[in-house]
């Protein structure tokens, strides 16, 4: 038994009776189990499912309260079409949306055949097995997402002219060699066609720590100065890196700053002290 087999059962139902727009198997919470659309019909079937399951539950209660016997079929009819509901095992519902001129008697007969076939191949077990796999995958994705969320996010602000002298790429890679740190910097992380202001705004808001590589070039860079002001306004933790501490402006000296050297490991360790 496979998902393809179930889809084939629903496809056969549609093909055997003219006027069925789509057929679906859902659970009593309105979750789609499987569905199949006629090839030339574009129907947003999900819009029906929660309402359908609620109607089915209400009808079953009414059926029981009025002592109508074993539940068979529920039909909702309008001037433009009909929806037919039928139990498909203990926990699932088979439904079909019909055109207004569809032969209801033939639909009933073929839906009963579909229900019987679905029970024979144990669609319900396939559904719960598939749902378990999906839930397991969802849990794993949430775990992965949490892992990324828990990372220390670092934004590098620097003048591109200083990329080599400050060894931006090497510092970023050394920081990221530790699994709990993620770095964003212009030459690697700017997306093709991305607006400069969008990049800056996203990066500064995204980061936990704003690392400002100070030099005469960054002092004269409008982009670097704008990034710094944004980080300061929204009170990001600012760590300055400079190779000329004697000319480091007062406003940067009052925050954490690192003396740059060619010893990348040492520079990285000093930057990390600012994360505490």
Q: What's the topology here?
A:
Blueprint: H1 3-16, E1 20-27, E2 32-37, H2 46-65, E3 73-78, E4 81-87, E5 92-99, H3 104-120, H4 123-149, E6 152-157, H5 168-176, E7 181-184, H6 186-189, H7 196-206, E8 209-214, H8 216-220, H9 222-233, E9 237-242, H10 250-253, E10 256-259, H11 264-273
Parallel strand pairs: 6-7, 6-8, 8-9, 9-10
Antiparallel strand pairs: 1-2, 1-5, 3-4, 4-5
Helix pairs in contact: 1-3, 5-11, 7-9
Polypeptide structure, described:
It is a single chain. The chain is an alpha/beta fold. The chain folds into two domains: 3-130, Beta-Lactamase (2-Layer Sandwich); 147-273, Toll/interleukin-1 receptor homology (TIR) domain (Rossmann fold, 3-Layer(aba) Sandwich). It has eleven helices and ten strands. A hairpin with a 4-residue loop joins strand 4 (81-87) and strand 5 (92-99). Residues 39-43 have low confidence and may be disordered.
């Amino acid at each position: 038994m496979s998902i393809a087999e179930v889809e084939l059962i629903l496809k056969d139902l549609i093909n055997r009776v003219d006027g069925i727009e789509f057929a679906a198997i859902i659970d009593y919470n309105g979750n789609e189990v499987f569905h199949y659309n006629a090839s030339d019909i574009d129907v947003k079937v999900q819009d029906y499912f929660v309402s359908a399951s609620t109607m089915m539950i209400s009808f079953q209660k009414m059926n029981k309260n009025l002592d109508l016997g074993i539940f068979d079929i529920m039909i909702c009819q309008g001037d433009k079409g009909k929806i037919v509901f039928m139990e498909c095992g203990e926990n699932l519902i088979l439904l079909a949306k019909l055109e207004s001129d569809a032969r209801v008697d033939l639909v009933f007969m073929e839906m009963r055949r579909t229900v019987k076939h679905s029970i024979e191949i144990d669609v319900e077990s396939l559904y719960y097995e598939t749902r378990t796999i999906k839930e397991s995958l969802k849990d794993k994705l949430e775990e992965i997402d949490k892992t990324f969320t828990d990372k220390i996010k670092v934004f590098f602000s620097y003048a591109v002219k200083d990329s080599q002298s400050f060894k931006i790429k090497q510092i970023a890679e050394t920081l990221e060699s530790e699994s709990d740190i993620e770095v964003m910097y212009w030459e690697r992380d700017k997306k093709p066609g991305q607006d400069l202001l969008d990049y800056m705004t996203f990066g500064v808001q995204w980061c936990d720590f704003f690392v400002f590589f100070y030099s005469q070039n960054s002092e004269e860079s409008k982009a670097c100065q704008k990034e710094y002001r944004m980080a300061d306004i929204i009170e990001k933790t600012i760590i300055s890196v400079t190779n000329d501490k004697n000319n480091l402006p007062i406003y940067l000296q009052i925050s954490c700053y690192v003396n740059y050297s060619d010893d990348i490991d040492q520079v990285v360790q000093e930057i990390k002290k600012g994360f505490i």
